[in-house]
Amino acid sequence: MNYLKRILKNKPLIVLIVASVVIALLNPRFLTWSNIVTVLRQTSINAVIATGMTFAILIGGIDLSVGSVLGLCGAVAATMVSSGMNVVLAVLIALLLGTFIGYLNGSLITTGGLQPFIATLGTVTLLRGAILVFTQGRPISTGKTPASEYFSEIGTGFIGPIPIPVYIMVLVFIVAYYILNHTRIGRYIYATGSNEEATMYSGIKTARVKRFVYAVSGMMAALAGILLTARLGSAQPTSGAGYELDAIAAVVLGGTSMVGGIGTIGGTAIGALIIGVLNNALNLMKVSSYYQDVAKGIVILIAVLLDRKQKSSR
Amino acid sequence: MNYLKRILKNKPLIVLIVASVVIALLNPRFLTWSNIVTVLRQTSINAVIATGMTFAILIGGIDLSVGSVLGLCGAVAATMVSSGMNVVLAVLIALLLGTFIGYLNGSLITTGGLQPFIATLGTVTLLRGAILVFTQGRPISTGKTPASEYFSEIGTGFIGPIPIPVYIMVLVFIVAYYILNHTRIGRYIYATGSNEEATMYSGIKTARVKRFVYAVSGMMAALAGILLTARLGSAQPTSGAGYELDAIAAVVLGGTSMVGGIGTIGGTAIGALIIGVLNNALNLMKVSSYYQDVAKGIVILIAVLLDRKQKSSR
Amino acid sequence: MKEIVVSMQHISKDFSGVKVLKDLSFNIYKGRVMALVGENGAGKSTLMKILTGVYLKTQGEIFLDNESVNFSDTSASQSKGIAIIHQELNLVKDLSIGENIFLGREPVSKGKRIMWNKLHKDAGYWLDKLGLKENPRELVKNISVGKQQLVEIAKALSIDAKVIIMDEPTGALTPAETDKLFDVISDLKKSGKSIVYISHRLHEIFEICDDVTVLRDGELIGEESIENLDEDKIIEMMVGRKLSEQYPRIETEQGEEILKVDNLSNEFVKDVSFSLKKGETLGVAGLMGSERTELMRSIYGIYPAKGSVYLNGEKIKINSPQDSLRHGIAYVTEDRKANGIITEMNVRENITLSSLELFKGTLGFMNKGKEEISSNEYIEKMSIKTSGTKQMLRFLSGGNQQKVSIAKSLMTNPKILILDEPTRGVDVGAKKEIYDLINKFKSEGMSIIMVSSDIPEVLGISDRIMVMHEGRVSGFLNSEEATQEIIMTLAVGKDVI
Amino acid sequence: ANTQDQPETEKPAENQEPAEEAKTIGLAISTLNNPFFVDLEAGAKAKAEELGATLVTLDSQDDSATEISNVEDLINQGVDLILINPTDSDAVKSSVEAANKAGIPVITLDRSANGGEVVSHIASDNVAGGKLAGEYIVELLGGKGNVVELEGVPGASAARERGEGFNAAIAESDIVVVAKQTANFDRAEGLTVMENILQAQPEIDAIFAHNDEMALGALEAIKASGREIIVVGFDATDDAKAAVESGEMAATVEQLPKEIGSLGVDTAIKLLNGESVEKSIPVALQLVKK
Ligand SMILES: Nc1ncnc2c1ncn2[C@@H]1O[C@H](COP(=O)(O)OP(=O)(O)OP(=O)(O)O)[C@@H](O)[C@H]1O
Ligand SMILES: Nc1ncnc2c1ncn2[C@@H]1O[C@H](COP(=O)(O)OP(=O)(O)OP(=O)(O)O)[C@@H](O)[C@H]1O
Ligand SMILES: [Mg+2]
Ligand SMILES: [Mg+2]
Question: C114, A187: Cβ pair inside 8 Å?
Answer without folding.
Answer: yes
